[in-house]
Every structure is written in structure tokens, then in C-alpha cells.
Amino acid sequence: MADSEFFLVKSDVLPDVFNKVMAVKRLLSGGKAESVNVACSTIGLSRSAYYKYKDAVLPFYETTRGRMVTLVFAVENFPGILSGIINILAKVKANVLTINQNIPINGLADVSISIETDRMTHSLEKLLEDLGKIPGVRSYKILARD
Predict the structure, then answer these.
(1) Which domain holds residue 16?
(2) Which of 11, 39, 144, 146 could staple 33 via S-S, CB 3.0–4.6 A?
(3) Nearest to 76, CA basis, from 135, 143, 141, 140
(4) Whole-prediction pTM value?
(5) Distant-in-sequence, close-in-space partners of 37: CB < 8 Å, separation ≥ 6
(6) b vs e for 55-70, b when ≥16 Cβ sit within 10 Å of the residue's Cβ?
(7) Cα–Cα distance measured from residue 12 to residue 93, given in angstroms and rounded to the nearest whole number
């Protein structure tokens, strides 16, 4: 079989079956369904369609597994903010490669952190969600991926 080719496609232009497969995966990974059968029934997707496409349909953030990702934050200038970020990275087993923090201007500092994602126990999407909940983190985004 030839090497597979990957495409980045907006979900609203895909056939409904692919969006339903992702919805089933979200129910299962979020613990909101106890089995594939329950999740498929809830979403209105046949189990055969789910099993046919489950390994071929991935959320965008899952493609970052095993890669280097650079995150950029704007954080408020108070003690412990960087420690809070690093603690969450450690909790999900992200391997920190570099940390750069600029001098705060007008009470905000820019921080960039490069991580390896291959051993992470959470998706990058979930990690970003958790980092965004830290008091004092004003903004965050993915700057680069390798």
C-alpha cells in the first residue's frame, strides 16, 4: 500500500460521518459514554462506520504528538505564575526544552516555552485549555511546531 497523504480540512466541509466519528471519540475520551456502543447510539452513528474511520480521523492537535511545539504566553507579573505553567507541563509529562521570559512591560511579560510532546498524557488541546485557566495567564498560543 502506498504512503498515505494527509490533508488539513475544515470540519464543516467534510461528510457528516467524519464529524460524527470525532463526536464519538470526544464522548469516549471525556468519559461521557461508557462504551463505543453507547457513544455511537448517542451520536447517531453506526458502530461499523465508527470502526471504519476511527483510526483515519484525528483532531488537528493530535497530529502534534511526538513533536516539538513552542508555546507563547502573555502573563501578569506576579510571583509563581511561571511555576504554575511549569507544574502543569510536568503534570502532563511534557518535556520542557527551553524557557524564555522577557522583562515585564506594563505589568505583562512574554514567555515562550518549547516542549516535546511525545510522552504527554494529555492532548495538546487539553494542555492549552488547562494552561489558559491559570490565574494571570492573559493569552496563549502555539507559535511553532516541528
Answers:
(1) 11-57
(2) 39
(3) 135
(4) 0.58
(5) 47
(6) eebeeebeebeeebbb
(7) 33
